[in-house]
Amino acid sequence: MKKRILSGMRPTGKLHLGHLVGALANWTKLQDEYDCLFMVADWHALMSEYENPGLLKDNMLDNVIDWLSCGIDPERSTIFIQSQVPEHLELYFIFSLITPLGLLERCPTYKEQLRQVVNRDLSTYAFLGYPVLQAADILLYKADSVPVGEDQLPHLELCRQIARKFNRLYKTACFAEPKALLTQTTRLLGLDGRKMSKSYNNYIALTDAPEVIRKKVQGMFTDPERIHVADSGHPDKCNVFSYYAAFSPALKDQVHERCTKAMIGCTECKKELAALLANLLAPIQEKRLAWQKDKKRIQEILSTGRQKASLLAKKTILEVRALLKI
Ligand code: TRP
Ligand code: SF4
Questions:
Q1: Same structural domain for residues 181 and 268?
Q2: Which residues pair with 180 in a beta bridge?
Q3: Three-state DSSP class for 187?
Q4: CA 139 to CA 158: how far, in whole Å?
Q5: 123 and 79 housed in the same domain
């Protein structure tokens, strides 16, 4: 039997290059080795977007189309929508019975979000429980491992603590502690050098046309010490170079050399990067067009995914209810 993994994404906007290197490229590879569940985390998204719920619906379909176009294979993997499997909320509540309040209040991601997000009111009861719902997502399917970025490690640690406490309290081995499968990638910064994020509008979307990509890349900052073309550059201080490093290991060394020896100017270097990215996205965008014409098939995929996920979820909930004598 293959080991199982579960991962999820919140449908809060279009997917971009950061999602590709941070998650999707990894997800597609993991399909060979693991039994995979990939979830659209719409409840998690609502925890911050509850004032504009309508926005999520379009994003959900759009994101799933991107997943499929990037190579998530519905024949091998289970693709489903969190809110369509009600057991997530049931387990979320059950776990909230046993999760110490202090653990949630001290969670670094929680404190950071409260500080950073200013245009939404996140001081809600549900948002505090964000990691509890995430623990429910993972343990509902008894996932062995969870592919996540480093930012999600505190949530995974909380999940492990909840599993441990549940087992101890109810004298059971119901939940094994899931492991983090850390995504090994160079962290890709946004076009402006800040964290790549929808709210900064500093990303290249997977759907961006070559012309859009060219404009965005031309606007990127380069090595600030390189003023004249004849100056040798410092690729390690240049965000453009980090994109080469992330997307073309083959070109990386070459660009490094041409930059440090002043054999290439930044305008040319960016032009080449834009072409590289457009080429990389072309096959994904082509597949996207095909999927967009086949919405019925996507509905079928989501419906099959829901059925497969439900079967597993129901089994776990029966077990948990019995342990709670409910
Ligand atoms: N919190 C995750 C994120 O923002 C999304 C998520 C929800 C998730 N449930 C999950 C990730 C379960 C892994 C496993 O990226
Ligand atoms: Fe950056 Fe390329 Fe300019 Fe070097 S040549 S500083 S890598 S944009």
A1: no
A2: 146
A3: coil
A4: 12
A5: yes
**DSSP H/E element including 81:** strand 78-81
Distance of CA 79 to the CA centre of its chain: 14
> Which atom from ligand 2 is nearest to the alpha carbon of 260?
4
Q: Are residues 129 and 159 in the same domain?
A: yes
Query: Atom 9, ligand 1: which residue's CA is nearest?
Result: 134
Tell me which residue of 76, 25, 74, 27 sits closest to 206, measured CA to CA: 25
Pocket test for ligand 2, best of 228, 234, 266 (most atoms within 8 A of CB): 266
Q: How many domains does the chain have?
A: 2
> For ligand 2, is residue 266 a contact (CB within 6 Å)?
yes
Q: What is the pTM of this model?
A: 0.95
Beta-bridge partners for 179 = 145
Q: Which two tokens stand for residue 299?
A: 């509905």
Q: Kindly give the pairing relationship between strand 179-182 and strand 4-9.
A: unpaired
Cβ contact 35:144 at 8 Å? no
CATH number of the domain that 118 lies in? 3.40.50.620
- Pocket of ligand 2 contains residue 238 by CB under 6 Å: yes
- Residue 259 inside a domain? The answer is yes
Does residue 72 sit in the same domain as residue 97?
yes
Are residues 244 and 300 located together in one domain of the fold? no
Q: What are phi and psi of 80, to 5 degrees?
A: -150, 170
Q: In what order do the strands lie in the sheet with 145-148?
A: 78-81, 35-40, 4-9, 145-148, 179-182
Pocket test for ligand 2, best of 258, 264, 268 (most atoms within 8 A of CB): 264
Indicate whether 310 and 284 sit together in one domain: no
Nearest ligand, CA 180: 1
Domain that holds residue 108: 4-188+295-323
Local mean pLDDT, 10-residue blocks, the chain (326 residues)? 96 95 94 97 97 92 98 98 98 98 96 91 96 98 94 96 98 98 82 90 97 98 90 94 94 96 96 98 98 97 98 98 97
